[in-house]
Write a structure and sequence with these properties.
alpha/beta; Aspartate Aminotransferase, domain 1; Aspartate Aminotransferase, domain 2; 2 domains; 7-stranded mixed sheet; disordered C terminus
Length: 410
């Protein structure tokens, strides 16, 4: 069953595979009751923006979901796919971009495409699953360094350079801009300082940074003022863009190589036209409506500052992702989350062992532009109350909530 699946009988449909219904927003329906939702990556509130929905609907009406038929290389190319690629490249400051059907398969395929058996991959231990799966396809050597540990990264680069000096291959370093689980940033500046010495290329997965970080929303590289030093930049539409799809942006010759060699795109149907037209609209709004990011960061700052003032550990991240770290067991995590959802009407993601170390409970909050300051105030008060209950042993004194039936067993 795996480390998570062992809880499926008690958790399915409530803690895992929950159904959130109704209009996407700060409040949705869970199990027939309205809840305050903090678990959607709808950073800029575009999922249900009237203009976005209008353009999505019009494009679906004109083109349907089938057009264009076939893979891009064979029969699935349109001027709108090319237009979107051009706009994405310009926005993130790269020469060219290649549109991808999905973020997960896109990253896997980018890694597979960029390296051969002579090359060495060096990657962060907290890398997203799509990076891990891409690395697993590599026939050559791969070295992992502890999360954001630059001293250890340099040791792995020394090992990698010795190998590539013998094989004639290159080194690919992979990190994330924003680490989506706990919200901290990859140490891009420190990594880039090592480029001259070790002559590697840097691939950055900026799924959570694209659209949210930087003066214009161009990502974590813009935020750190080192965007031009990122060799291969990857972003998705599933977060700030509230859509489906992804892109990779880099130098024109590398992009062209990817176009002709990425198996996940060569042998897959082109991204449907409504998603492309919809993405063009979203890009326009991100460029021309800075108030979307301003509204997001108003909520982020209020939430994180308020939680810290109440004594909560929310990590040291600089991104919207807001983890709340508590001490407790899996049993306490389930009872606490049930209390939070049923008695405080707050829905957020809960993470416990084995995803985090034993004895740690992590509640993960995703602020968005459509949350309100009233939402923030209510949530901070509710979290203060559940923490008091947790510290008093209230949740430990109960059996684990069992959601396998219609009613929980307490």
């Amino acid at each position: 069953m795996g480390p998570i699946g062992i809880y499926q009988q008690k958790a399915h449909g409530y803690f895992t595979f929950p159904k959130l219904e109704g209009e996407i927003g700060n409040r949705m329906i869970f199990r027939g009751k309205e809840r305050l939702i903090w678990s959607l990556n709808n950073y800029l509130g575009l999922a249900n923006h009237p203009e976005v929905r209008r353009v999505d609907a019009e494009a679906a009406g004109v083109y349907g979901m089938a057009y264009p038929m076939g893979a891009r290389m064979m029969s699935g190319q349109t001027k709108y796919h090319e237009q979107l690629e051009g706009e994405l490249a310009e926005f993130v400051g790269k020469e060219d971009a290649f549109l991808l059907n999905y973020g997960y398969q896109g990253m896997v395929s980018i890694i597979d495409c960029l390296v051969d058996r002579r090359d060495v991959i060096v990657y962060d231990s907290d890398a997203h699953a799509c990076i891990i799966d891409g690395v697993r396809l590599h026939f050559g050597k791969r070295f992992v360094y502890p999360h954001n540990n630059i001293e250890n990264l340099e040791k792995e680069l020394e090992r990698a350079k010795k190998l590539t000096d013998q094989t004639g291959g290159g080194i690919l370093v992979i990190t994330e801009g924003v680490y989506g689980m706990v919200g901290d940033l990859g140490k891009l500046k420190d990594i880039i300082r090592l480029k001259e010495k070790y002559n590697f290329r840097l691939l950055v997965d900026d799924a959570h940074g694209f659209g949210t970080m930087g003066a214009t929303g161009a990502g974590t590289g813009e935020h750190m003022e080192i965007q031009e030093e990122i060799d291969v930049y990857f972003g998705t539409f599933a977060k700030a863009m509230a859509g489906i799809g992804a892109f990779v942006a880099t130098k024109e010759n590398i992009t062209q190589f990817l176009r002709y060699n990425m198996r996940s795109q060569t042998y897959a149907k082109s991204l449907p036209m409504p998603m492309v037209i919809g993405a063009l609209k979203r890009m326009d709004m991100i460029r021309t409506m800075p108030e979307l990011r301003s509204d997001l960061w108003t909520i982020v700052n209020a939430l994180q500052t308020g939680l810290r003032e109440r004594g909560f550990n929310v990590g040291g991240g600089e991104s919207p992702v807001t983890p709340v770290f508590l001490n407790g067991t899996v049993n306490e995590a389930t009872n606490l989350t049930f209390d939070l959802r049923e008695n405080f009407d707050i829905f957020c993601s809960v993470i416990a062992y084995p995803v985090v170390p034993k004895g740690i409970i992590m509640l993960r909050l995703i602020p968005t532009a459509v949350h309100t300051l009233e939402d923030v105030s209510y949530t901070i008060d509710a979290f203060t109350k559940i923490k008091d209950k947790l510290d008093s042993g209230f949740y430990a004194s109960m059996d684990m909530v069992d959601m396998s039936g219609n009613n929980p067993t307490r």
